[in-house]
Amino acid sequence: MIELRNITKRYYSLVALDQLSLTIEPNEVLGIVGPNGAGKTTLFKLLAGFLRPDGGAVRVHGPVWPTIGFKPERLLYPGHHRLYQYLRVAAALCNVPSAQISQAVEQALAQLHLTDVAHKRVRDCSKGMRQRLGLAQAMLGQPDLILLDEPTDGLDPDGQVCVMQVIRSLQEAGQTVILASHQLQMITDVCTRLIILNRGQIYYESNMQEALSLRPQATIIATQELTPLADMLHALHPELQVSGRAVILEHGALPLRRHVLSLILGAGYDVVHVEQKRTTIHDIYAEVVR
Amino acid sequence: MIQRIMTLLGYLFNSLLRSLTGVLYIILSFIFIYIFFLNHATPDFDYYLLLLAALGAGLAFFTTLSTANIANQAISYPLLVRLPSRVEFLTAVIGSSLLFTTILQWLMALIALRSGVEISLGHLLELPAIWMSVNILAAVLALHASDLAAAGWSRAAVYGVLTLLLFGQTGAVSLSQWLGGRFLALSSLFFQRGWTVLANPFSTIANWFSRDGGETIKSVLGFVFWPLRATAEAAQTGLFTPTQALAPAIFLLYATILFMLAADLFATKDLHLTE
Predict the structure, then answer these.
(1) What CATH architecture does domain A2-66+144-212 belong to?
(2) Of A75, A108, B192, B199, which is the most buried if we count CB atoms within 10 A?
(3) Is A236 on the interface with B (CB under 8 A)?
């Protein structure tokens, strides 16, 4: 859909994006995580066309530039407008035919549970309502690409679930979503691809399923020190480690977990805890950003 | 495109009308009318035309600055991203401030009639062309003064050129004399070295600068401000000659050139809207 090739963006001496290359595929939900100042907002503004790259090229795969909906991180909307009025403006700007504007606005309000507060002025809305208003305006007119910067920041658990459902429905409708968030669980739940951005560069990029299936781990904890069994257990597989009362089986050693368990029990040890853990984005993030 | 521009125009107009500055402009316009018209009887049409043109130009300039300031805030990001061209946004900014100005100017013009100004049908037909062209030019000039359209040193360049043109007229004769002296010195230098091929044309140029140059530079620089003079003169005599009648068209030509420049600057700059 869009290809960024060796993009560099500087603010005076600060390099916000450094030779960044990225391809955005149609109908994906791309999650971007990274520490503050990693370049996420700059990347969004560049994709939205607000910034021009200092180096590199942005290419579109298709005859026309995709239509874009954007929810910025800061929830700044005109305070004197009522929610439905503001959405009517947004709908009219994205070429929704005049006759269908009311219907499109009502649909967006309903989808984000804002129907009851549609006549409220924006300045009287809570942070959560503004957050949902931001998402509602971004999805109006069914743009090809939706950029969501921190879409669940300040939302209560119900609001977060609502936003995640909406993002899933957008993908089901064939739209492409790019979202940046510090809420790693939300990224795990809705994204199909993950990017970790740091210091203006992509430090990690993977399909979400592949990322989560990376290095699964199982831990068996006994009541006593397992050091006497260490040599025997380690001989079974190099990715098997004994540490005090625990045996840790990583990726390649995982199929041996039943065998290891029976060996420990057979040697007269009592086992108090067995845990199989998947890799989380938090693990990947901590490792990559560190 | 029309739907998008009209939507943005309504949105910005609404925002300006509800802002403190919008209310301030309305109050200041009433004060202006009270001081210059309602406070004393003024039957002169030229007074009416010129003062209300000045009010319109001032309003257009400052409302455009205010509207551009509203448009330059981060609340515009979600709206701007929807537009295929940023020029649509700039058009809406100009359009909304001109709509605000025109409504207020004509309202004030109606109130000012209470001072006893006599307007014939011919006079009435002159007003829209003159006032609108001046308003549009003032609005476009304001766009170049705003953070929204200005990029880099563009503000300094536009207003610097304008200042040069304005003050260049008064200093044209001394500038020409100075240039004449420099060319004469160069001509003498070339002559001493035997480069007569260069010395002769430089001598001719030096003579021209010393004799006619001042007046020519003055008229060239003054031509830029001709529409302003022509409008004022025609208003005073109460009659537009066919040449003077072109003045509003020249204003619009200037406005078009300046708007194209502003649009180009706005379309190619990095947008860092105020948060």
Answers:
(1) 3-Layer(aba) Sandwich (3.40)
(2) A108
(3) no
